Amino acid sequence: MTQKLRIAIIGAGRIGYVHAGSVNDTPELELVYVVDPFEENAKKVTAAFGGKVSNDPSAVIASGEIDAVIIGSPTATHIPLLRECIAAGVHALCEKPLDLDIKNVEEFRAQANAAKINITLGFNRRQDPQYLALKAKVASGTVGSIEQVILTSRDPGPAPQAYIAVSGGIFRDMTIHDFDMARNFVPNIVEVTAFGANSFCDYIKEEGDFDNVSVVMKGANNELVTIVNSRHAAFGYDQRAEIFGDKGMLQISNLSDSTVKSFTKDSTTAGEPFMDFFLERYADSYRNELKLFIEGIKTGKVLGSTYDDGRAALILADAAHESAHTGKSIKVNLN
């Protein structure tokens, strides 16, 4: 390995651009390649952050010019690219989900977990400063034994229809972050019940998906986890959490660009709008995730989310999908 860790980013969409910015902000890293089948997308990233352009991820992985990749390409490419990374001895930070078919995840599981490279899953919210503080307080015993977890996640507006059509559905695309966060506090989920509705978006309904969902899950120690998701929120990007235990309660509220509040004859406690996009709200989490990935490579350990974390989140997403379409509660085994 050279003095600087040599990085390739595969996928030059909006998430690839964010990762490139994080690489650029990290002195220990060098952005060597940006890979995308549409080279114009890759050129936009390299124009901002440097590096060479390629449309061939396999050639870049096998080139010997890189030490690690950040995979932000379409979901169907994730496991094939991880296989190539293992063969080439190239470390990989891979965006979620691992795949849309749990069979592919299970088939690759033994090879992934036995790999000599670092495979880290991109569940960035675990590394958000607010959630890190929440986790630390739970670990210190502030709320005692967890009894309830409530997670709320609403996007400012729905993604385009073309994206919805290939996303795998709201549970695998959006709620999967909340499934992972739920396991951050209640690792062993044993039962999933979900409800879905079409409340406002016709093209999401046309694609056979929901725009509004709620999920209730039970943990092995009788903890209850409630997840509320929507593809829109008039007041911005709605990201809240509550942990309730026998000794108290912890909450995370939405973030604004300013904490200034106004009090007038027309309104009281009026504040600035909430952050309007996940890239703003979770910018720090992407940088922290990358730092943990680098430290994991140095120490030979996966310090962030693991392959099995990605597997567990997809199992929960599949169970929620089944429950919402059948009206049944679904038992799960995450082992």
Automatic annotation (TrEMBL):
Gene3D superfamilies linked to this entry: Dihydrodipicolinate Reductase, domain 2, NAD(P)-binding Rossmann-like Domain
Entry GO CC: cytoplasm
Swiss-Prot/TrEMBL keywords: Oxidoreductase
Domain GFO/IDH/MocA-like oxidoreductase, first and last residues per copy: 131-250
Ranges for domain Gfo/Idh/MocA-like oxidoreductase N-terminal: 5-116
Alphabetical list of InterPro entries matching this protein: Gfo/Idh/MocA-like_OxRdtase_N, GFO_IDH_MocA-like_dom, NAD(P)-bd_dom_sf
Example GO molecular function: oxidoreductase activity
Oxidoreductase keyword on record: yes
Gene Ontology BP term (one): NADPH regeneration
PANTHER family for this protein: BINDING ROSSMANN FOLD OXIDOREDUCTASE, PUTATIVE (AFU_ORTHOLOGUE AFUA_2G10240)-RELATED (PTHR42840:SF3), NAD(P)-BINDING ROSSMANN-FOLD SUPERFAMILY PROTEIN-RELATED (PTHR42840)
Name recorded for this polypeptide: Unannotated protein
Protein's organism: freshwater metagenome
